[in-house]
Amino acid sequence: MIAAMPGLSRSDVEHVAHLARLGLTDDELTLLQGQLNHILEQYAKLAELPTDDIPPTAQTIELENILREDLVIPSLPVEAVLANAPDSAGGYIVVPAILGGE
Amino acid sequence: MVSSAPSSPALERYEAVIGIEVHCQLKTASKMFCGCSNGYADAPNTHVCPVCLGLPGTLPVINRKAVELVLATGVAINAETPPATRWDRKNYFYPDLPKGYQISQYDLPLASNGRLTFETSGGEVTIRITRAHLEEDTAKLIHATDAAGRRVSLVDFNRSGAPLMEIVTEPDVRSAEQARRYAEELQALLRAIGASDADMERGQMRVEANVSLRPRGTEAFGTRVEVKNMNSFRSVERAIAFEIDRQADALDGGEELSQDTRGWNEDRGSTYVMRSKEDSHDYRYFPEPDLPPLRVDRDWLAAIRGQLAELPADRRARYQRDLGLSAYDAAVIVGEPAAASLFEEARSASTDVDAKALANWVTGAYLGLLKTDPDAASRVRPGELADLVRRVTAGELSGTNAKEVFAAHAGDGSSVASIVDARGLRQISDASALGAVIDEVIAANPKAVADHRAGKPALGFLVGQVMKATRGQANAAVVQEAVRTRLDAAPDAAPDGDTAT
Fold it and tell me: Chain B contacts of A15, Cβ < 8 Å?
């Protein structure tokens, strides 16, 4: 039950900010902690509705099985692909070295 | 499940509990959610469009073939297919992921509860497969140093958005050998059904293992370590064997294991920490709103089942049962798709060719050539190989000369018939055709004849003289028999060339 969930702690908010790669000041963290908990309270209100007879719903448009055939169409010219990149070399996009990751 | 014999001393005290995750690139023409070519070995960033570059305002559309390849894999591993599946976003920031999320499948994979059975040195093993799902691959990163000496990463988005299947087992694997055999069998299956080329060296099949130990006789799982960067079947076995020993040593020493991700270093023969638990990701999966759900109806699945190629296990069984091949030959041929198709096509080209003899040529000369000279191996025509084997079986071509003819055929693609004729290699197996030559040799070598009759070893010399006189075209076994019969049965008879049977 969402209604029974404790609110977000300050460290929860810091964690979410880190996941979103947002650098927040102490004041912003305080502000957002309040706003996020307010949003969660609204969900707790919604959770009071009886939904036992409603299946979990991830889509509200009534479409399914929209598929394409396995056909190749032309890609962008490499100049266009690299046009938005701050730096490129030899056809590659160059970014600062990042170790670890996936 | 048969538990195999401990492959290291550590396994006498501990039981290894291993789960395996395999990512494999699906064999489609285009990418998962856009029409860019799936040929990412080409020049960097040449198969890229707004969708796979993650530009705002673009929408993904599912590639039907990619879905069907995962459904076919599900059928092949006896998995269940859910009536409906959906897609989920796996969120993380990394330069190989332009959207900031990967479209994957979280709680409704396209296949679940399957299994794979294979042979090991300890007997037959069945591993339960938890799930197989479809997702998009990431871009390729190359770590380099730029002109200013700055460390940089080079990004190639050709692979970004390519269809990728992830196959996850239950923690059923109990040894490094079982892990290798599972990966080998899965590769054979994926190749047989055409889902993936699954070449580990080329990154088309990436194997990761979760390895933990528990004292024998206990149930609770130990601390799990994820092992990555295993780029061959051999390194899968070596890396897991190393990790089992490393963990056993740590546990014996009363050390606390840490839930790390470790990489395999092939040259050093050891694993190293890539990422500790503290850096583990929080992916915040949620349903992908840009893709409608996918319903797999019974007819669609039945059509896929109907088109499924013969599975490796079935083919091996058939080769042994119907063709009399050894388990080893059957496994070797089925394990290499090029060998399997050569074998099958040679048998179609010449239905009366001796299957065992053909199998020997495929596992020996052909697979040897495939390793040393793949270009030459690609020139071997099934019909020509069948002709070669037929000639050897019929005694028209000696084993030695057949090897020469095979090499010449692979060298420039000329037909077996033309090589045999041009080089005069047609073997004379008809004893009557050899009679005159044998008589000449006997007449010309009275001392050797006398030696033989005196019980001295001179037969080989006489046979050699006949072989020399026929420029190696005579069937040596036939010559030996004919010379022996001629000398023993009728010491003073006039040559009539009809003494051999």
Answer: 282
- pTM of the model as a whole: 0.80
Nearest chain B Cα to A72, which residue?
B35
The verdict on a CB contact (< 8 Å) between B152 and A96 is yes
CATH number at residue B490: 1.10.10.410
Sheet with B88-91: list strands edge to edge.
B101-104, B88-91, B286-287
pLDDT of residue B498: 46
Between B439 and B415, name the one with better pLDDT.
B415
Task: Decide if B201 contacts B9 (C-beta within 8 A).
Answer: no
Chain A nearest CA to B154, separation (Å): 5
What distance in Å separates residue A82's CA from the closest CA in chain B? 8
Segment B268-282 mean pLDDT: 79
As given in the structure block, the two tokens for residue B331 are: 């496994």
CB within 8 Å: B61 and A21:
no
CB atoms closer than 10 angstroms to residue B37? 19
Residue B100, chain A, CB below 8 Å: the answer is no
The ipTM of this complex is 0.86
- Picking from B45, B137, B164, B279 by the largest number of A CB atoms within 10 A of its own CB, the best residue to mutate is B45
Of B147-161, B192-206, B354-368, B472-486, the range with the lowest mean pLDDT is B472-486
Strands B261-265 and B225-230, how do they pair?
parallel
Identify the domain boundary among B264, B295, B326: B295
B153–A78 C-beta distance less than 8 A: no
Rounded Cα distance between B403 and B408, Å, is: 9
Longest dimension (CA), chain A: 59
Reading the block at residue B239, the tokens are: 């890396």
Q: Alpha helix (H) ranges present in B222-296?
A: 233-252
Q: Whole domain around residue A20: which residue ranges? A: 10-47
Q: Is residue B479 part of a domain?
A: yes
Which pLDDT tens digit goes with each residue over B418-476? 998 888 777 777 777 788 888 888 888 888 888 888 888 888 888 888 888 887 778 88
Number of domains observed in the structure of chain B: 3
Identify the pLDDT of residue B490.
Answer: 57
Tell me the sheet residues that pair with B91.
B101
What pLDDT score does B465 carry?
A: 87
What tokens were used for B50?
Answer: 């707004």
* Higher per-residue confidence, B421 vs B6: B421
Helix (H) or strand (E) holding B66: helix B64-76
The answer for residues whose C-beta is within 8 angstroms of residue B311's C-beta and 6 or more apart is B76, B189, B192, B193
**Mean pLDDT of all residues belonging to chain B:** 90
Phi then psi for residue A92, to 5 deg, are: -95, 150
Q: Strands A88-89, A92-96: parallel, antiparallel or unpaired by DSSP? A: antiparallel
Residue B316: what pLDDT? 94
Q: Give the structural domain span for B461.
A: 431-497
> How far apart, in whole angstroms, are the C-alpha atoms of residue B200 and residue B80?
27
Closest Cβ opposite residue A95 in set B36, B37, B155: B155
Tens of pLDDT along B197-247?
999 999 999 999 999 999 999 999 999 999 999 999 999 999 999 999 999
How big is the CA angle at B474 (ends B468 and B477), to the nearest 5 degrees? Answer: 110
Pair B436, B480 in one domain:
yes
CATH number of the domain residue A43 falls in: 1.10.20
